[in-house]
Specification:
heterodimer, A: mainly alpha, globular, B: 464 residues, mainly alpha, two-stranded antiparallel ribbon, 20 helices
Chain lengths: 488, 464
């Protein structure tokens, strides 16, 4: 029931926002997002205090009876963490838009809330069909956000993004239908329920599992994105409005990694044994490849886009290694990356707003003009390069540990990301913030209060969870254990 | 049955309107009549199977009633959408009459029990459409469309008749059930060769009517040349009726000789998917694009026939697809009709529509999303139900092909959306849309979304 409400609140809010005009729309959007955050924290405490209370936490009613499709949602530790990430980031994303005077604000904020609804649906769905519907539903608002409020050449780029992801998800649909068709062995009653799909998947032969594995993995790999399916990503991130980029990289990307954890690992264990290595190798190639490209980028937004590919490559490798450290690290890193990357994209946006450029070479000496900004920037950046005592560290440590258990060679190769990440991040910081002003005319005033609130909140989270990651681990560890025990 | 009688009566009444001078009220009268027919049709739902009329020539069983319902609902919306096509027309009465008789033919096709009624239905439906296609008398394209449709349609009718004759020669009956009994009484190979030839000829004739490749060459020209509202009629009512007929003919009548028509159907579906989608992507004229896209939808619907599950899932899938496609098309053609009134039918005509008519643009977006098969619109579930029926068959590669070509489909449907939202408008003032038409567009959009939220409502109609 509570989970159902988590989905309904943003939906209702978004419909209301569509009806309003101007400033009222955005105030309501922010209010609704904050209410949703408060509610999700309430759900979190309920989950902690009454762990076995499935009656309150899950909802299951029939949707299309003849096909065994249910509107079934529920929460486990991993799903709850990602729901919290979503409800935490969406108010920040809405707040970060306050500096802009977007055309048709009601549509803009309405679409963001609609997207939140779909994302929470993806993270809570316990029915394969429902999962697919939410998965596709998340694509439509973000497509329109990018198309309507994006930058130059957006029609072409967002279209590429749309077709790429749709293409992948259609294959996932086929994979899921294939599984569905194998459910009901014995009873004859077919069902989309997650446990029935698990059973159906495991009853398949290795070859059948492999086919399902690649069909479903294709969708997730495109969403993350994993090398070589990443070509839509940098352009889309750059052309999208800042809020769109934040939604894409902060939350939507996690749909892919979350999908692998919940909808791929437990379904096809035999195929994972056979093909997991190949997929890990692809992910690791992506890490090094994207890091190297990031080093030579001049546009700061594009640099972050490539760094995101590198980070997610490590996450995906950790998940596919299918051991406790790897998967748990991936879950923690998904949260940290979500928070940090939103901060970084906001910084790129602030730089552009204040100086009119995102080109690293034509920036410099900002530290002398705005010390506060440079401190906040530094904290977020250190979180992103995973310095100990920041939130990035714990996840990355577990991830590399997990991949090492799978294969030392790949861990060494993928671990390069830590070094390369430090290279491009610190170098860009040096060029942008330190040194001399490129020209005397450049000014950098004080930060707007909405930007300040967002950046400080993110910094607090980075340090707080860097020093005390226990709550995250407490949620993730048992959930991952349960998942992996399923695999055996 | 009552629905069919009411529409026939309405057609005759419309003919009298000019003589007895009640031309002014004929339009509301027709709307009321169609609504009445729908209600009558609906009332029969609980007492269907007992009614077999005219010496077992026609029977409105549940399947027939369901497809008739789709046709009657579509034609109701269609009449409202097309109202000013009739108003500005000196031959208004003739046109209304012709449309009504075309619907009579369509309703017969949903319920035939006998080859004679099949042929009658097809002819009653087609002949008015030949005339209507050419109804823009001074437009050379419209004349071409009518002429082409007539020639090609007659050709298909010849195939149909020849096929019926051959089958009669083999089985000695026009009756569908007796033909079925004949097939089950003979083992494969013992039936005369010309019986198989007859089945193939019938298949070709029906494939022509639904414009599946390679029998599709008439469709783009006819769609483009005909007045837009008539194109809408062809792509909704005619398609639904033809598929209801195919369903009955091949799954009931020739269900015992699947080996004859399965391979033909597989290649037709594959060809249609590829040709239709690639050609549609290359079009610059929206109407022509929709013509090619309708070929691709026909291929999807043929997949249901191919899967031949002999279960309620088949009926549900085809019915749902017809409804989703008809309703989506009415919305799309309604917008297209208003936007292209000035004569420009290219994608540019849609440029900046989101700024000029935001509401209409939003409705068109939903229609395009539905035709492209994006959740959570009706079009998505339509495709989903088809894929579910197909997954158990031996033709899984067709599913992959359908998916690949659907991705191309997204390209051309989204061209419209991008034009509306992204391209700067040529003119800034609002496109005038009549209130009644606006209502139809909005209503069909709502239905498209509602069907996506509660698809079980239609898809489970046959779960008895």
């Amino acid at each position: 029931m509570l989970t159902g409400l988590l989905i309904v609140i943003p939906l209702v809010a978004s419909l209301l926002v569509f009806l309003l005009k101007g400033k009222a729309a955005r105030s309501l959007a922010l209010g609704a997002a904050l209410a949703e955050l408060a509610f999700s924290i309430g759900v979190y405490f309920h989950f902690i205090n009454h762990p076995g209370d499935t009656h309150a936490l899950s909802l299951n009613c029939s949707w299309i009876k003849s096909m065994g499709i249910h509107f079934a949602v529920g929460l486990d530790g991993i799903g709850l963490l990602l729901v919290l990430l979503t409800t935490f980031l969406v108010p920040l994303i809405i707040l970060s838009a306050f500096r802009y005077d977007y055309d048709k604000p009601n549509a803009f904020y309405g679409l963001i809330l609609l997207m939140q609804m779909a994302l929470i649906g993806v993270f809570t769905a316990n029915d394969g069909f429902l999962f697919y519907v939410f998965w596709e539903l998340a694509l439509i608002p973000i497509y329109f956000i990018c198309l309507l409020w994006g930058g130059e050449n957006r029609a072409k780029i967002t279209f590429k993004f749309f077709v790429y992801t749709l293409f992948g998800s259609l294959f996932m649909l086929i994979g899921l239908i294939y599984l569905y068709n194998h459910t009901g062995f014995g009873s004859g009653i077919k069902s989309w329920a997650i446990n029935d799909l698990y059973t159906a998947g495991r009853s398949l032969t290795v070859d059948q599992q492999s086919a399902v594995f690649w069909m479903i993995f294709l969708a997730f790999a495109i969403k993350m994105p994993v090398f070589p399916l990443h070509t839509w990503q940098p352009d889309t991130y750059v052309v999208a409005p800042t809020q769109g980029t934040m939604l894409l990289s902060g939350i939507m990307l996690k749909m892919g990694t979350f999908g692998v954890i919940k909808w791929l690992l437990p379904v096809v264990p035999l195929a994972l044994e056979k093909w997991g290595g190949t997929a890990i190798l692809l992910s690791s190639i992506g890490i090094v490849y994207a890091s190297c490209i990031a080093i030579v980028q001049k546009d700061y937004k594009r640099l972050i886009a490539y760094s995101s590919i590198a980070h997610v490559g490590l996450i995906s490798a950790g998940i596919l290694s299918a051991n406790q450290q790897g998967v748990q690290g991936a879950v923690i890193q998904m949260l940290s990356h979500g928070v940090n990357v939103v901060g970084l994209f906001l910084i790129a946006d602030i730089l552009f707003r204040h100086t009119g450029t995102r080109n690293i070479d034509s920036l410099g000496g900002i530290r002398n003009m705005n010390g506060q900004f440079s401190v906040l920037f530094l904290i977020i950046l250190l979180g992103s390069v995973a310095l100990p005592l920041t939130n990035g560290f714990i996840g990355e440590f577990l991830l590399i540990n997990g991949v090492y258990q799978y294969s030392a060679g790949i861990a060494a190769f993928g671990g390069l990301s830590v070094i390369l990440g430090a290279v491009y991040m610190l170098r860009s910081y040096q060029k942008i913030m330190l040194g001399e002003k490129p020209n005397n005319a450049m000014e950098f005033g004080s930060l707007a209060s909405s930007d300040k609130i967002v950046l400080i909140t993110i910094c607090v989270v980075i340090i707080a969870f860097g020093v005390y990651p226990k709550p995250l681990n407490d949620l993730a560890e048992p959930a991952v254990k349960a998942l992996l025990s399923n695999l055996k | 049955m009552k629905g069919l009688l009411i529409i026939s009566g309405l057609g005759i009444l419309a003919m009298l309107a000019e003589i007895f001078k009640f031309k002014k009220i004929i339009f509301p009268l027709v709307l009321l009549g169609v609504l009445g027919a729908y209600v009558a049709n609906f009332m029969e739902w609980n007492t269907p199977l007992s009614i077999s009329s005219f010496d077992n020539m026609i029977a409105f069983d549940k399947v027939a009633l369901a497809f008739s319902g789709v046709i009657l609902a579509t034609i109701f919306f269609w009449f409202i959408m097309a109202n000013d096509y009739f108003e500005n027309n000196s031959n208004m009465i003739d046109h209304i009459t012709l449309v009504l008789f075309a619907v009579v033919g369509a309703l017969m096709l949903t319920a035939f029990k006998n080859m004679t009624t099949l042929f009658l239905g097809i002819e009653i439906m087609s002949i008015p459409l030949y005339v209507l296609a050419a109804s823009k008398k001074k437009d050379i394209n419209s004349n071409e469309a009518g002429f082409k449709y007539l020639i090609m349609g007659s050709f298909a009718s010849a195939f149909l008749l020849f096929g019926i004759a051959l089958i009669y020669g083999a089985t000695g009956s026009f009756d569908l059930m007796q033909i079925r009994a004949f097939i089950s009484a003979h083992s494969a190979g013992t039936m005369p060769l010309f019986f198989y030839a007859g089945v193939v000829m019938l298949l070709i004739a029906m494939l022509f009517k639904v414009s599946a490749a390679p029998f599709h060459f008439w469709a783009p020209d006819v769609y483009q040349g005909s007045p837009t509202v008539i194109t809408a009629l062809m792509s909704t009512v005619v398609k639904t009726a033809a598929f209801a007929a195919i369903l009955r003919l091949f799954l009931v009548g020739f269900g015992g000789v699947t080996e004859v028509w399965t391979m033909i159907l597989v290649s037709v579906i594959a060809l249609s998917l590829v040709i239709a989608n690639f050609s549609a992507a290359a079009q610059s004229n929206v109407k022509r694009m929709l013509a090619y896209s309708s070929i691709s939808h026909a291929a999807f619907m043929l997949m249901v026939v191919l899967a031949n599950l002999r279960s309620n899932a088949t009926l549900g899938a085809l019915l749902y697809y017809s409804l989703a496609y008809s309703i989506g098309s009415i919305a799309a053609f309604g917008v297209l009709y208003n936007v292209t009134k000035k004569g420009d039918e290219s994608f540019e005509a849609f440029n900046g529509l989101a700024k000029r008519n935001p509401l209409i643009a939003a409705c068109m977006t939903v229609a395009m999303l539905s035709l492209a098969g994006i959740p959570i619109t009706a079009g998505f579930f339509a495709k989903y139900f088809v894929l579910i029926t197909m997954i158990g068959t031996a033709y899984k590669w067709l599913i992959i092909l359908a998916i690949l070509t659907s991705a191309i489909g997204v390209y051309y449907y989204f061209k419209v959306i991008i034009a509306m939202y992204f391209k700067p408008p040529v003119e800034t003032e609002e496109v005038p849309v009549e209130l009644s038409q606006k209502m139809v567009i909005i209503l069909t959009t709502i239905i498209t979304l509602a069907l996506g939220v509660v698809p079980g409502f239609v898809a489970e109609m046959f779960s008895f």
